[in-house]
Design a protein that fits this description.
By secondary structure, this protein is mainly α. It is built from five helices and no strands. The longest helix has about 35 residues, at about 35-75.
């Protein structure tokens, strides 16, 4: 706390300002150090990456099942062979990419929760990739970049990793 007369620092329990002598009114409390942005948000960010990865996993599994069941039997229902022959492998590959991204998201979320040194980089890469997944992926991507991208975030995250290791 500071004196409202001259601005000098006032210690807890001090009745008068040591510089100007003005009486200190009200309780004097010590200021607690403010937590950094990374320290405040990294736990929530890890949980969000686990949640968005679970949603991606569900979507990837459903797409893979549709590609390999419905598309495989469309020509039996009277659909031309050419579109189903093209769509089945295309949708299967897209589903595999979605599942791979979900696996990386699970790894990043777990790493952020455990304060692993490599998790920040993986989360940043996934954050950039998720910007195209409207609306939830974009929100998590922007939040990831806001928390982990600034220059001081590297130092703050390294301090969290070092504190966990100690």
């Amino acid at each position: 706390m500071f004196c409202d007369g001259c601005g000098a620092a006032v210690q807890p329990g001090q009745g008068f300002c040591s510089r100007c002598g003005k009486p200190v009114v009200g309780p004097v409390t010590a200021l607690q150090p403010r937590r950094s942005r990374v320290q405040e948000h990294v736990h929530l960010l890890g949980i969000l990456w686990l949640a968005i990865s679970a949603m991606n996993t569900i979507g990837g599994v459903v797409l893979y099942i549709v590609a390999n069941t419905l598309m495989a039997h469309l020509h039996e229902m009277g659909a031309p062979e050419a579109p189903t022959a093209f769509l089945r492998p295309l949708l299967s590959v897209v589903a595999i990419f979605i599942l791979a991204k979900a696996a990386c998201g699970f790894i990043a979320g777990w790493g952020l929760l455990q304060r692993e040194p490599w998790a920040r980089v993986i989360a940043l890469v996934l954050g950039f990739l998720s910007l195209f997944n409207i609306p939830f992926g974009t929100a998590v991507g922007v939040y990831t970049l806001w928390v982990l991208l600034p220059v001081q975030s590297q130092e703050e995250y390294d301090a969290l990793v070092a504190a966990r290791a100690a």
